[in-house]
Amino acid sequence: MRDRSEELEEELRQLRDLARHLMSAREEEKARVARTLHDEMGSSLTAVNMDLMSVRQKLGEDSPLGQRLARASGTLKSTVEGMRRVIEDLRPSMLESLGLREAVRAWAKDCAERSGVSLTIDIPDEIPRLPAGSPIGLFRIAQEALGNAVRHAKAGSISLSMRVEKDHVILTVVDDGVGIAPRSAGADRPPHGLLGMRERAIAMGGTATIGGGPGGRGTEVRVTAPVEKIR
Q1: The pLDDT of residue 3
Q2: How confident is the model at residue 124 (pLDDT cuts 50, 70, 90)?
Q3: Which of 10, 20, 21, 223 is such that its CA lies 20 to 30 A from the CA of 136?
Q4: Which pLDDT value is given to residue 191?
Q5: Confidence (pTM)
């Protein structure tokens, strides 16, 4: 008979495989939605914009209706830009074209600029090759941690870093916000976002710790993910 440690190891492996499958399924669905938005809504909004421009030219831009159409065109432009951000969040093209380092840097800088928080980024020039699924996993965790710091923690400053220690990549996001509120009595599960980060870490074969920041202020998210083994 197998001893208890072997049984626990097998259960952990099965849990990791399930988490990896669920993560992959979620990413595939997000990619499908992104393609639909791009292919269907993108072309429709472009057609609407062309019609607006044509009518504006006929009416004259100085006419009252022309000015209203100009405002509508500006609103449409903002809508298109917002849709592009949504598509990029659903299917981060920079991750595929430029890699994890540049994708995280670009998304973090854009998030900081839109929210007005102070951001410090420390990522090495070279990140070891990661197993399939880990780059998008780390990217999504960085997104979630930064989004939580901005939306919920009301942080004024955020520090994001990646470093390599032995055979692991370590992602750390620290903010100076209000911290994580204690769970109310009877609450069995952590908030959805925190649970999602832990699930992604498990799927990558790594770990996630989420708690108070240095000195008990703010929040620190620390995630480890193994690099690809050289065979």
Answers
A1: 73
A2: very high
A3: 10
A4: 58
A5: 0.75
Name the pairing type of β-strands 219-226 and 207-212.
Answer: antiparallel
Give the 3-state secondary structure of the chain: CCCHHHHHHHHHHHHHHHHHHHHHHHHHHHHHHHHHHHHHHHHHHHHHHHHHHHHHHHHCCCCHHHHHHHHHHHHHHHHHHHHHHHHHHHCCHHHHHHCHHHHHHHHHHHHHHHHCCEEEEECCCCCCCCCCCHHHHHHHHHHHHHHHHHHCCCCCEEEEEEEEECCEEEEEEEECCCCCCCCCCCCCCCCHHHHHHHHHHHHCCCEEEEEECHHHCCEEEEEEEECCCCC
User: Per the structure block, which two tokens stand in for 163?
Assistant: 């470093």
2 pLDDT tier (thresholds 50, 70, 90):
low
Q: Amino acid letter at 223?
A: V
Angle at 91 between CA 12 and CA 20, to 5 degrees: 10
| Token pair 């669920």: residue | 22
Amino acid at 147: G
Count of other CB atoms within 10 angstroms of residue 44: 10
Maximum Cα interatomic distance, the chain, rounded to a whole number of Å: 87
**Parallel, antiparallel, or unpaired for β 157-165 and 168-175?**
antiparallel
Q: Does 214 score more than 90 pLDDT?
A: no
Query: Which residues have C-beta within 8 Å of that of residue 228, sequence separation ≥ 6?
Result: 128, 129, 130, 131
Q: Which two structure tokens, joined as six digits, stand for 61? A: 């831009």
Mean pLDDT of 175-191: 62
